[in-house]
Amino acid sequence: MAVQMFSQLVRLFDELRYEPTAKRIRVLAGGDTVADTTGAVVVWEPLRVVPTYAVPAADVRAELVPAPAVDVPRKPERLREGAPSVLTPSTAFGAHTTAGEPLTLRTSAGDRVGAAFRPADPDLAGFVLLDFDAFDWLEEDDEIVSHPRDPFHRVDIRHSSRRVRVERDGQVLAESSRPVLVFETSLPMRTYLPRDDVRLDLLGPSSTRTACAYKGVASYLARGGADLAWTYEAPLSDARELTGLVCFFDERVDVTVDGEKRPRPVTPWSD
C-alpha cells in the first residue's frame, strides 16, 4: 500500500527530531559573537513544525547559568484541515516541549534570560538550544531571519499562464493570466500577481510585518481592517522573482483558477 509522505511527517511531530548541518553558524548579541561553530544541529522540539539551532556548549562564548522556569503561552494551530494541531513560530521558541534545563546566557550585552536550553535527551548531550528570537544569526556570512531553514522543506517558484481571479464579498480584487506560483512544503499553493493586475485602489497599507526564513520580510495590504495580501519589496536572494508581486491569503478571499473556484484552505492564517 502506498504511503503519503505528509502523513509520515505528521507521525513524527510528537518526537524530538534533529539533523546535523555542515554550515558554520554564528550567534550574535549586541554585535558580539556568543557562539561560533561548525558543529551545530537543526532541532525540532515535539509539536514544532519549524526548527531552531542547537550548538555545542563548548562553542558558546558566554557563561551559561540556570534560569527560572517560565510558562510561555502556546498557540496550537493546524497546518491543514484534518491535520493535528502543532506549534508554529507564533508560539515563541521559549516554549519548550521536551525535558531539559532552561539557561541564561551572560553576555557583554547583558543577560539573555532563559534564551538557552539544555535538552535532557542523550542524543543531544553536550548541546544547548538557543532561542532564535533572542539573537542575530549568520549562516556562513549571510544573515538569516525568522528561523533556521528546514533541510527537508522546499519552496519552488514557477511562472504560469493559469487564469487567476481574486474576489472578496463579490468584489473583484485581482485578475491575471501571468501569476507566479509558489509551491511550499505543507502549505497551499500561493499565487503571486503583478501589481498591474491587482486593484490596489481597493486595498490600503497595513502596519503588519512578518519574516519568512525562505523569502524575507513581508509587508501587508488590507481592506476593511483585515490583512488580505502581502508583498516582498526586497526578498531574500532565493526569492528575487517575487519582488513587488502581490499574494492574497487564499484563506480570506475567494480564488478562481482557470474557471474553477478553489476551496478556502484551513491553515494558521484562516479567519
> How many strands?
24
Give the strand line-up of the largest sheet.
1-4-5-11-10-9-6
State the share of residues found in helices, binned by percent.
Answer: under 10%
CATH A-level architecture of the largest domain: Beta Complex
User: Could you say which structural class the secondary elements and strand pairing correspond to?
Assistant: mainly beta
Q: What would you call the quaternary organization?
A: single chain
Characterize the biggest β-sheet.
7 strands, antiparallel
According to CATH, the fold-level topology of the largest domain is: Metal Binding Protein, Guanine Nucleotide Exchange Factor, Chain A
Give the DSSP E fraction (strand runs of 2 or more residues): 35-45%
- Alpha-carbon distance between the termini? 37 Å
Rg is: 20 Å
Mean pLDDT level = 95
Mind explaining what this structure looks like?
- The chain has 271 residues and is an all-beta fold.
- The chain has 2 domains: 5-144, Beta Complex (Metal Binding Protein, Guanine Nucleotide Exchange Factor, Chain A), CATH 2.170.150.40; 155-262, Beta Complex (Metal Binding Protein, Guanine Nucleotide Exchange Factor, Chain A).
- Helix content is 3%, strand content 45%.
- The protein contains 1 helix and 24 strands.
- It has one helix spanning 5-12, and strands spanning 17-20, 25-29, 32-37, 41-44, 52-56, 63-66, 76-78, 85-87, 100-107, 110-119, 127-130, 136-139, 142-144, 155-159, 164-168, 171-176, 180-184, 190-193, 204-212, 216-223, 226-231, 246-248, 254-257, 260-262.
- The strands form 5 sheets. A 7-stranded antiparallel β-sheet has the order 1-4-5-11-10-9-6, with no helix packed on it. The protein has a 7-stranded antiparallel β-sheet with strand order 14-17-18-22-21-20-19, with no helix packed on it. A 4-stranded antiparallel β-sheet has the order 3-2-12-13, with no helix packed on it.
- Strand 17 and strand 18 form a beta hairpin.
- It is elongated.
- The chain starts with a helix and ends in a 9-residue tail after the last strand.
- The mean pLDDT is 95.
